[in-house]
Design goal:
Length: 172
């Protein structure tokens, strides 16, 4: 038990401060979406952008097979997108005072925290076993998992775009 705690403390201690800052932002943003809120398409792209930059920086600058990894990353966006779209399928939206509003949902918080947990875990594994950066099979795995979790953001964003078009067209 003491060995496990030692490993956990070592991992937490060696995690850069900016990673904890990102986690706090995710929790704050995700918690705000638990209740009814205005929809901002621009703000919807902030979290995916953070994770895309974080992931692509690691892929391009650290991995031994970045081109292969990127192919799996891009292809796996598609199933992530469809799963997310399915999850958001029944999300309710309406217009209040000419502003698009969505009902509260736990889905955005789960998607954000899942993305963080996956990226964090993969990066911890890589920190412990840096030889995996050149392991072809791990490169494929990393690309697929990273792309899939990013795709989870875009199904929700696409749903917002669809609803925005439908509601504002109906209103005119």
């Amino acid at each position: 038990m003491a060995d496990i705690l030692k490993i956990i403390f070592e991992i937490v201690h060696n995690t850069p401060l900016w990673v904890w800052f990102v986690l706090l932002i995710l929790i704050k943003r995700g918690s705000a979406l638990l209740v009814e809120s205005q929809v901002s398409l621009k703000r919807s792209f902030i979290m995916p952008a953070i994770f895309i930059v974080w992931g692509l920086d690691t892929i391009v600058n650290r991995f031994g097979n970045p081109n292969v990894l990127l192919n799996f990353y891009v292809v796996s966006l598609i199933p992530g997108f469809f799963l997310s779209y399915f999850l958001y399928k029944n999300q309710k939206f309406y217009i209040r005072n000419t502003v698009l509003v969505r009902e509260g949902s736990i889905i955005p918080l789960v998607v954000m925290l899942l993305n963080f947990l996956v990226k964090y875990t993969l990066n911890v594994v890589l920190a412990i076993r840096p030889t995996l950066y050149t392991d072809f099979h791990f490169n494929i795995f990393y690309g697929y998992i990273s792309g899939f979790t990013i795709g989870l953001f875009f199904g929700g964003i696409y749903k917002i775009i669809q609803v925005k078009k439908q509601l504002f067209v109906r209103k005119k």
